[in-house]
Design a protein that fits this description.
heterodimer, A: 212 residues, alpha/beta, Rossmann fold, 33% helix, globular, B: 498 residues, alpha+beta, Phosphorylase Kinase, domain 1, Tumour Suppressor Smad4, 6-stranded antiparallel beta sheet, 5-stranded antiparallel beta sheet
Chain lengths: 212, 498
């Protein structure tokens, strides 16, 4: 049985203090609870959480859904997007089982990246490293008005934005992430795409806008 | 939360609470205030052909199937949409709420650690070794008889759809609800039905259930004559996969063979062009690699320990046709009717496991094998009568029906055992639901007690067995169960003699 690795990469810089960080914590909690009620996710999904501020840390290593423990998360510091992408690619390298001629590997990982501000480090270096990883769907979320969607567009073509980084919007984002992990019927028309596009995911809720 | 309402196409007032309870690939679903029905609104505006399709489903096909003969029976097996509404330019269908037994009563282990009590019993929960082994509450899991019964119901429901000239097009564990505890099953999401040549399918199907030819041709344009889309033949493939998964808790094509180092391409090849049965008798190259499986998939993923042949000869034959001969040759796949018949006959081969803690409680007793429960290993030590059935085809001529009944204590004999022409399906009369007799071990002998067989006759000893009396089932005796057309003769064979 192939595992489905899911990486949540979350901004915990100082600007997330207060309502946004609480919403992120609740969002993870709701997401895990929802996924545990999904028999497909329960069978295949493995979850990891990476947070970033002045540097990046993996606060929850990749582990199957049933064993996942909520990480401690606090907000402070700067926004090291580059360090986050670099750590993410290291973890994908070491944690995701590759398919070889001898062994069935995991599914390509899903990545959900969320930030509320502008990178404060050399993010291009991290980006170049990340670009070498083979991922499935990568979705970047700009939470609130201070994040730069043009930078996120360089990480992935699948960018969404939240008008404000408030509790309702962040919750809606996590709810959408959990519905994205499930399987559903494959539509007939969208079978030509080479890379994963956001149109394959369930439609996002009203709070989550797709950035074109 | 506000309640909205409109007058439906059939002139009824349809209400719903304006908060979606779920979202599928195409629709958002809302509850009626009394929760007796749901309204599913398509997110996108429907074209004329899709509307036409829905009109046929809630109209002519509903009339034919749900309001037709045995409609009450089909209503339980097919969650059929019955009306259409329009609201803000969007189209919605009105569907009955699922029956109560399709919601978890106990949920998961450890005081429902997953919090699934009250949730729908989506069919995926039960088709997975990991979910069975680690998560589902003991009281939700059912036993082998549950999954045979559920497979019979799903085959029968699909047979009815096919008999009407329709294809389901997206049969999968996501589109069925099953209740192993109560032995119920229902097909849902019926609004995607395909009328060959008239209404084309919207979806290719759900991963794991899409037929190889559909996957192999998905790169072609939809109007290309070589493109294969869901049909009755692909439904047959999906049904075979579903039955295999419910009876063995593994997928028939997911083994060790690797076709590409890209997992998406590898999966596509192993489900499509290069699809190979994991239990292929001569090509063992796709046999699951036990060094590469999660412990929670055991023992079910071990095809040496749990080969599909443990399900007996009738199902083996159909699995061979589905996953060997018919895998890349759709015309050879078993029909839903053949599945139903083979499953019904397999139920008559069951023996209760003598280990009260056995996970499956029953096993298919094949007298060619050493009698031992394949699930828990408990040997069966007793001698046991088998009734081999023959039936009359014209004057005094009896031919084998390729059907037999394995006897166990307190088992009933029914009319569908005593007459070849009677089948335990939706057409069975109330009279024929009553037991015709029962078997019991009495003072060291196995006996058949006659409850309702006026013509029961011990051919070997040439004596009538009136109602209320019994016949001793000695090795090799012949008992005429019923005279008349289709009436059966049972030849008793004592197996496991010491």
């Amino acid at each position: 049985m192939r595992r489905l690795p899911v990486y949540l990469v979350l901004d915990v810089s100082g600007s997330m203090t207060g309502e946004p960080i609480e919403a992120v914590k609740n969002g993870i909690k709701t997401m895990i609870a929802a996924l545990r009620q999904d028999p497909y996710a329960l069978e295949t999904a493995h979850i990891s959480v990476i947070t970033f501020n002045h540097n990046a840390q993996q606060v929850a290593p990749l582990i199957e859904l049933a064993m996942f423990q909520e990480p401690q998360i606090t907000a402070s510091g700067t926004t090291s997007v580059g360090a986050a992408l670099s750590l993410l690619s290291d973890k994908i390298e070491s944690e995701v089982k590759k398919t070889t001629v001898e062994q069935k590997g995991d599914w390509k990982p899903l990545v959900f990246f969320m930030t509320d501000g502008l990178p404060t480090d050399d993010w291009k270096a991290g980006l170049n490293k990340f670009k070498k990883q083979k991922c499935g769907m990568v979705v970047a979320c700009a939470a609130g008005q201070h994040a730069d969607t043009t930078i996120l567009k360089e990480i992935t073509k699948n960018v969404v934005s939240l008008d404000t980084a408030d509790s309702a919007s962040i919750q809606a984002f996590f709810k959408w992430v959990s519905s994205s992990v499930s399987v559903s019927s494959a539509k007939i028309e969208n079978e030509t795409a080479e890379t994963s596009s956001i149109s394959e995911l369930p439609p996002p809720p009203d709070e989550v806008n797709i950035v074109i | 939360m506000s309640t909205l309402s409109v007058i439906s196409q059939k002139g009824k007032k349809i209400e719903w609470i304006d908060k979606a309870i779920g979202s599928g690939t195409m629709k958002d679903v809302y509850f009626s205030p009394d929760k007796s029905y749901v309204v599913g609104f398509y997110r996108n505006k429907l074209d004329a052909s899709s509307k036409d399709r829905l009109n046929s489903i809630v109209g002519v096909y509903k009339t034919k199937i749900i309001d037709g003969p045995n409609g009450d029976y089909w209503r339980n097996l097919l969650c059929w949409p019955y009306d259409i509404v329009e609201h803000n330019g969007l189209t919605g269908i009105v569907v009955p709420t699922y029956q109560r037994h399709f919601f978890f009563m106990h949920g998961s282990v450890n005081d429902d650690m997953l919090g699934i009590k009250g949730q729908e019993k989506n069919g995926k929960w039960f088709a997975s070794a990991k979910n069975q082994n680690r998560f589902l509450h003991e009281k939700e899991k059912g036993d082998l008889l549950s999954y045979l019964r559920i497979s019979i119901l799903l085959s029968r429901a699909l047979k009815r759809i096919h008999a009407a000239g329709l294809a389901h097009s997206d049969l999968s564990y996501n589109n069925v609800l099953i209740d192993p505890e109560g032995k119920n099953a229902s097909i849902i999401d019926i609004d995607g039905l395909v009328v060959p040549g008239k209404f084309a399918p919207d979806v290719m199907g759900t991963p794991d259930f899409v037929a190889p030819e559909v996957i192999m041709t998905k790169h072609l344009p939809v109007n290309d004559s070589n493109r294969k889309l869901p049909t009755i033949l692909t439904d047959r493939y999906a049904l075979s996969v579903l039955i295999y998964m419910y009876l063995l808790f593994r997928h028939p094509l997911k083994g060790r063979k690797i076709h590409d180092t890209d997992p998406v391409k590898d999966e596509e090849l192993s489900m499509g062009a290069k699809a190979l049965f994991i239990e292929h008798p001569t090509d063992r190259s796709n046999k699951p690699n036990l060094n590469d499986v999660h412990p929670s998939e055991l023992p079910y993923i071990d095809v040496d320990k749990m080969p599909y042949t443990i399900l007996g000869p009738y199902l083996k034959e159909l699995f061979d046709r589905a996953f060997i001969e018919g895998l890349h040759n759709p015309q050879k796949r078993p029909t839903s009717n053949e599945w139903e018949e083979a499953l019904v006959k397999t139920v008559d081969l069951l023996q209760p496991c003598q280990n009260s803690k056995c996970s499956h409680k029953w096993f298919v007793f094949d007298n060619k094998l050493s009698p031992r429960c394949p699930y828990c290993g408990t040997p069966y030590t007793d001698a046991l009568p088998v009734l081999n059935f023959y039936s009359s085809r014209g004057k005094g001529k009896f031919l084998s029906d390729n059907a037999r009944l394995m006897v166990y204590n307190n088992q009933y004999l029914y009319r569908w055992h005593t007459n070849r022409l009677v089948h335990p399906n939706e057409r069975l009369s109330d009279e024929d639901k009553k037991p015709a007799g029962y078997f019991v071990k009495h003072r060291g002998n196995w006996i058949l007690v006659n409850q309702n067989l006026p013509e029961l006759y011990d051919v070997t000893n040439k004596v009538d067995i009136p109602i209320g009396k019994h016949v001793v089932l000695d090795d090799n005796i012949q008992v005429l169960l019923e005279k008349g057309n289709g009436g059966r003769l049972a030849h008793v064979q004592m197996v496991n003699k010491r």
